[in-house]
Design brief:
The chain is mainly α. The protein contains one helix and no strands. The longest helix is centred in the C-terminal third of the chain and has 31 residues. It is rod-shaped, with a radius of gyration of 24 Å. The N and C termini lie far apart (78 Å).
């Protein structure tokens, strides 16, 4: 029976287990996907509000 790639049978000296924190990357990407359009919308709204008071 063949071992799956993630099983302990494949763990050997040539395997490089580098701990990665993908949660931080996903969190940063989420903030970018929400924050950039939000910042653009806020600046556009403030620019149009400023025109009302000129």
């Amino acid at each position: 029976m063949a071992a799956s790639p993630g099983s302990a049978a494949h763990a050997g000296p040539d395997r490089h287990d580098v701990p990665t924190n993908t949660a931080a990357g996903r969190l940063a990407l989420g903030w970018l996907l929400v924050g950039v359009p939000l910042a653009y919308g806020v600046t556009q709204t403030l620019a149009r509000v400023a025109q009302l008071f000129q």
